[in-house]
Amino acid sequence: AQRVTQPEKLLSVFKGAPVELKCNYSYSGSPELFWYVQYSRQRLQLLLRHISRESIKGFTADLNKGETSFHLKKPFAQEEDSAMYYCALKGGGYNKLIFGAGTRLAVHP
Amino acid sequence: DVKVTQSSRYLVKRTGEKVFLECVQDMDHENMFWYRQDPGLGLRLIYFSYDVKMKEKGDIPEGYSVSREKKERFSLILESASTNQTSMYLCASSGTATYEQYFGPGTRLTVT
User: Fold this and answer.
1) For residue B68, which phi and psi values (nearest 5 degrees)?
2) 3-class secondary structure per residue, B33-66
3) Contact across the interface for B90 and A44, Cβ inside 8 Å
4) What is the rounded CA–CA span in Å between residue A74 and residue A105?
5) What's the mean pLDDT in B3-13?
6) d(C-alpha A72, C-alpha A88), whole Å
7) Between A9, A90, A102, which is nearest B99 by CB?
8) Is A42 helix (H, G, I), strand (E, B) or coil?
9) Is the confidence at residue B111, as pLDDT, over 80?
10) CB-CB neighbors (< 8 A) of B99 in chain A
11) Parallel, antiparallel, or unpaired: how do β-strands B42-51 and A72-74 relate?
12) What share of chain A in percent tops pLDDT 90?
């Protein structure tokens, strides 16, 4: 079955500390994965996708097919990174996405 | 810039009422989606539509129906609202070229 697992509901770090938001997936085939972010009182928006291999706001994510993971990383967290982060997997036709349960990142000063 | 709008930010309804949530997108997207967003459960797909008058059930369609009479508009209907349908409802749209979905601001529905 296609599934996305985000094992941490809350990740709490201090400003300047490294951040890793975990995401594991289950998918038979060639996966396409995404990270979406929702800042307080803002709408959910795409942060990055694995196929573009880009760094957005200092965040990167590498697809590891061996470990079926797509962890989101940032070397030095900023307070403005505090938000809800969702990992998502391409889930079949019509551009459907399967979302994980989300991880709330809290960056403290 | 893609714009997805939802008819209400907050809605309070009584048990048994019929509830309409409306979503409009202005990017001529073929695909539209309705999700529930609940803490600890993430986003769960209720229904989606890939064309006018075409719809498919998502993961949790029970108690909901949808309507898409025009390409830009996708409505979610709760035929008889129940307290367990209290939630945040998100609408999204996407084109056919990518899997990127564009989200509306959400409607927080409370059923009392």
Assistant:
1) -135, 95
2) EEEEEECCCEEEEEEEEEECCEEEECCCCCCCEE
3) yes
4) 12
5) 95
6) 12
7) A90
8) coil
9) yes
10) 32, 34, 49, 90, 95, 97
11) unpaired
12) 75
Task: Give residue B107's pLDDT band: very low, low, confident or very high (50, 70, 90).
Answer: very high
Q: pLDDT digits over A60-103, tens only?
A: 998 998 999 999 999 999 999 999 999 999 877 777 899 999 99
Q: Does B103 touch chain A (CB under 8 A)?
A: yes
Q: Which of B36, B37, B19 is nearest to B111 (CA)?
A: B19
Lookup: tokens for A23? 């995401």
Q: How many helices (H) and strands (E) does chain A have?
A: 0, 11
DSSP type of residue A9: S
Burial class from Cβ neighbours inside 10 Å (0-12, 13-18, 19+) for residue A29 reads exposed
What pLDDT sits at residue A50? 82
CA distance A1 to A36: 22
Output DSSP code: residue A78.
Answer: -
Would you say A8 and A101 are in contact if contact means Cβ atoms under 8 Å apart? no
Ramachandran class of A57: left when φ > 0, alpha when ψ lies in -120 to 50, beta otherwise: left
